[in-house]
Write a structure and sequence with these properties.
Elements lengths: L2 H13 L1 H6 L11 E7 L9 H11 L6 E4 L5 E7 L3 H11 L5 E9 L1 H22 L1 E10 L8 E5 L10 H7 L20 E4 L6 H5 L6 E6 L4 H4 L2 H6 L3 E4 L9 H11 L9 E2 L14
Parallel strand pairs: 4-5, 4-8, 8-9, 9-10
Antiparallel strand pairs: 1-3, 2-3, 5-6, 6-7
Helix pairs in contact: 3-4
GO molecular function: aspartate kinase activity; ATP binding; homoserine dehydrogenase activity; NADP binding
Enzyme class: transferase
Organism: Leptocylindrus danicus
Amino acid sequence: MNNKAMLAKEAVEEEFAKELRVGHISAIDVISPCSIIAAVGDGMGHTTGVAGRFFNALGDAKINVMAMAQGCSERNISAVVLSSESTRALRAVHAAFRLSQTMVRVGVIASDELGHALLALLEKQRNKLMKTFDINVQVCAVVTQSGNGENGQLVVLDDKSTNESIGPRSLELATGGMGLLGAPAVSEDEPNSVVKAVDGGFSEMSKFLISEDVAHTVIFDCTADESIGEQHPEWLNAGVNVITANNTCLSGSRELRDAIEAAEHHYGKMSASYLREVTVGGGLPVIST
């Protein structure tokens, strides 16, 4: 706590000493460090929905607004947030007003043809999503179940990569030319600076996937592995949305189903989503999504 904060706290406590003494005010606290994020524009006072979009963006990004204010000229809306959440808050507001792209970090736990097809689909649709909706879907981590041991082989984006995404081709490069389908598809001497294989498997995946600066994170479970299904509650509690074709966790023990249901409501309306529709009827299109 800096000297100015202490002086301000002492001044407020002195001014409201009577209210503090009789209990009308419980306490005067200082929370730091904080940041102020503001939306400024000449037309704000005559444009419907600006404030709603501003605060809705912060809410969707799971940002806690500690204080808010509006300028008397109606050209400014400000919110105080924790400094640790300021980057994520700024990106969320920029995305809401189409000032920047909405970043979505994606992890895929792949199994043979299904995982390969999903990676190819995400790669194919990526440019279309960016141009049409300003959504940047970035596949940041892939676990191949044909890798080393039961935990699989983990492939992640290089730390220096900012706008790349893991696709079938780069995945095969990172795994030595042997991708999900078990056949080399690229030259062994082709350079690969986008992705790298690291120690760990699906149990370590979230460490490379979750970023404090990105509000939206998704994991696709394309397996039928019960041990992976046991990770679903942990991912949901960490704020990661889970899309699963793995029905072992829903048809297994009652304890696991209860844990998933509790994780779905862990943060109330701000809880991560659990999308299980593809598991119904073994993936047959018997319900709409």
